Amino acid sequence: MNRRNVLTLLGGAAVWPLAARAQQPAMPVIGFMSARGPEDSAHLLAAFRRGLAEGGYVEGQNVAIEFRWARGQYDLLPTMAADLVGRRVSVLVAVGGDPSPRTAKRATSTIPIVFGVGGDPVSEGLVESFNHPGGNATGDTLYTNVMEPKRLGLLRELVPGVPLIGVLLNPGLAGYQLPQIEEAARTIDQRILIAKASTDEELAAAFVTLTMERVGALLVAADPYFDTRRDQIVGFAQQQRLPAIYHFREYAAAGGLLSYGVSVTDAYRQRGVYTARILKGAKPAELPVLQPTKFELVINLKTAKALGVKISDNLLSLADEVIE
Fold first, then answer.
1. How far apart are the C-alpha atoms of 9 and 139, rounded to whole Å?
2. Domains, the chain, ranges and CATH?
């Protein structure tokens, strides 16, 4: 073999891997935007990644994820959505509360969206119907925002005869939560005090109001901002010796007295499954919006003992989990 042939073979060997690499498809990128924060979402991300893995996708191996966190500051969401849309992500996952999906839907009508909401995605304009979403979005609802009357009833059963129940509410979601709570309170003839908060300053002021008005129990309305301040809210209820009810099990696990709602970790796993299906070619318009089939009552008996609250046999019999 002459020198020219050797150089030709060597050159071909050097060029071929580069050409092969150039022909490999680019790794798809998931845009993940949440109204919550990473500090309170580690277990939820683990569940999301499990769902992705069920569909054959592992972060860093055959898919990348770009994360954006609002940490309860909803005014940051439009910039986050615009950034991810500008990066032409393959799928936009919008979670952590209703403001995130609404913002994502306004930001793009072409990039597939997987959402998680607490209310009705049809009335929110996210989809045309549950079974046939149409458009570029699908996902699930946890119905957290429409379960406040049920939580108020459970709290009233826990502390019957309490003169005044405080309600901690984010004014950004008050439009459909507040009328339901007020109607439920009228139905059971219960006086309530609404304390609104969407910032740390307002939350501190709400704590002062609830304390000065001497509320006897507390309903914390579902909201992602409150999720990012979970330990502060649970700590306030413990300090003031207030029986309180929340929407996610995580609150009861952190020392809250009661929680009533769906498993949010299961929801995040399913969002991972849907994201994987879309990456494989499924159309959001053809994936039905999922609805919860089970709501769980969790009671923290250790907290009940510390507060001096007697849990009735009826509530204990209804509990899906008792933390001791």
1. 53
2. 29-143+264-286 (3.40.50.2300), 145-261+296-323 (3.40.50.2300)
